[in-house]
Specification:
Its EC number is 6.1.1.15. By secondary structure, this protein is an alpha+beta fold. It has helices spanning about 1-25, 95-110, 135, 160-170, 215-235, 275-280, 305-315, 340-355, 365-375, 400-415, 420-425, 455-460; strands at about 25, 30-35, 35-40, 80-85, 90, 115, 125, 140-145, 150-155, 170-175, 180-190, 205-215, 240-245, 250-255, 260-270, 285, 290-295, 295-300, 315, 320, 330-335, 360, 380-385, 440-445, 445-455. The chain contains twelve helices and 25 strands. Strand 2 and strand 3 form a beta hairpin. The longest helix is centred in the N-terminal third of the chain and has 23 residues, at about 1-25.
């Protein structure tokens, strides 16, 4: 009875709507065709108004223009993060863009070796961690719900992912192995001496991967595969690091912090054998339905530690000189006067349509302050738009510098081109052909000198 009533109501509503559409010939967002039946009008992305301003992204950039190299606040001055309390920090918009780029490189490299991404909960029932509860000791954050049930905030996920696999693949067959899984998520540890750096945090972001194997030899072989993938990631991010061997089944990756003259652990990988999987009840079935232990490897990367290592290793007197692959933007476009604002917006649109992540600095601030801020946050390519460059003779970096710039751009574009939301927002926006024929000023964050180049060369360089 109820379905019949609903159908009649819907039919009545549709009839009324079609009558209204027929007599008005137009309903907002619809155009009427034939017997009053409305057809959706497809609107171009360019029809929607949106704010191209990036001013709010710079709210965390410190006003002081001092040297940040050798300064413990080299994450705060470029507006990367701010500390809320010992061991707890918030990542600001510029820092989040850098983190997103680091994570995108990790996603691609994990896909390269066949690892699949999962999402695991941060809240664990207290029985998830049993055997290793004493190992974590007082570092384990615990809480109780309104019914008196005890939970833990996730410090690591070995036990949890074993239980997940046991529930998702039951029975687990030898044909399913090996399995590579990873996630990027939050972890919690009640550090005894938390500090305002990313070395001892109570809450932090971690990329943790796990591989499951049918025997020890398979576990050892794939352990080396992940080890090589991690070394490739750190090399791509242009980090100076050491790989430290700890016994036969464990490696630690350490990055140098020049300002502290110390090494910081950025990643740790383990061959854990079958103790944790056995305790979790995870076994695989072979012929004759016989049960066998599963071997587990664990691979962790501290995302915020990578952020600190990159900012520390690439700091100079003007801010952070990040490699393009992890810079918050590829290009900054700076209008030097009011008459250049329209041309700057067109150049910004042109670069965005080519998949290049571009920052348009529309702030009403002195030109030297805007340039200083772009240098501070580590944007590699800076474009200056002004009529004075149309009168200047063409000048380009020498061949050696040009090749280095293009090499860095190619590496970055492999991972990041066409990934920015502004590419979708601006892809239908029309720009005048004349913008291709003007000259602009150009400088690169890592190389001295300012040059005069045509606009198409900006896209080539970036």
């Amino acid at each position: 009875m109820l379905p019949t009533v609903l159908v009649r109501c819907l039919f009545f509503i549709q009839s009324v709507y079609c009558c209204v559409a027929f007599f008005s010939r137009r309903v907002d967002g619809f155009r009427v065709y034939k017997a009053g039946i409305p057809k959706l009008v497809t609107r171009s992305h360019a029809d929607y108004n949106w704010d191209v301003s990036h001013d709010n992204e710079l709210f965390g950039v410190a006003e002081s223009r001092g040297d940040v190299s050798g300064n413990r606040n080299n994450l705060r001055k470029p507006g990367i993060l701010t500390h809320m309390s010992p061991g707890i920090s918030t990542v600001l918009p510029i820092g989040k863009r850098i983190v997103n780029r680091i994570e995108r490189v990790i996603h691609v490299e994990m896909s390269r070796i066949g690892a699949k991404e999962v999402e695991l909960p941060m809240l664990l029932s207290s029985d998830t961690i049993n055997e290793r509860r004493n190992e974590f000791g007082r570092e384990l954050f615990s809480l109780t719900d309104r019914n008196g049930k005890h939970y833990d905030l996730c410090p690591t996920c070995e036990e949890l992912i074993c239980r997940m696999l046991d529930k998702a693949l039951s029975p687990l067959s030898k044909r399913n192995l090996p399995i590579y899984l990873y996630q990027i998520g939050r972890k919690f540890r009640d550090e005894a001496r938390p500090c305002n750096s990313n070395m001892r945090c109570r809450e932090f972001t971690m990329k943790d991967a796990y591989s499951f194997h049918s025997d020890k030899d398979s576990a050892a072989m794939d352990y080396n595969k992940f080890k090589q993938a991690y070394e490739r990631i750190f090399t791509l991010l242009e980090l100076s690091f050491d790989t430290v061997t700890i016994g036969d089944t464990e490696h630690e990756f350490r990055a140098m912090l020049p300002n502290k003259k110390t090494l910081m652990e950025i990643a740790h990988i383990f061959q854990l054998g079958n103790a944790i999987t056995t305790e979790a009840g995870l076994k695989y079935e072979a012929e004759g339905r016989t049960k066998h232990p599963v071997y587990l490897n664990s691979y962790g990367i501290g995302i915020h530690r990578l952020l600190q290592a990159a900012a520390s290793q690439h700091a100079d007197s003007e801010g952070i000189r990040l490699p393009q692959i992890i810079a918050p933007y590829d290009v900054a476009v700076i209008p030097c006067d009011e008459n250049s604002e329209e041309a700057s917006a067109d150049i910004y649109t042109l670069l965005s349509q080519r998949g290049i992540d571009t920052f348009l600095d529309t702030r009403k601030a002195p030109i030297n302050q805007r340039v200083s801020d772009m240098m501070n946050i580590g944007i590699p390519h800076i474009v200056y738009v002004s009529s004075v460059y149309t009168e200047k003779a063409m000048s380009c970096p020498n061949e050696d510098i040009t090749m280095k710039i293009i090499e860095g751009s190619k590496k970055s574009n492999y991972y990041h081109q066409y990934q920015s939301p502004t590419y979708s927002l601006l892809q239908d926006k029309e720009i005048p052909d004349t913008i291709q024929r003007i000259n602009v000023g150009y400088s690169h964050r890592s190389f001295p000198g300012e040059y005069t180049i045509p606009v198409p060369n900006c896209a080539t360089a970036a």
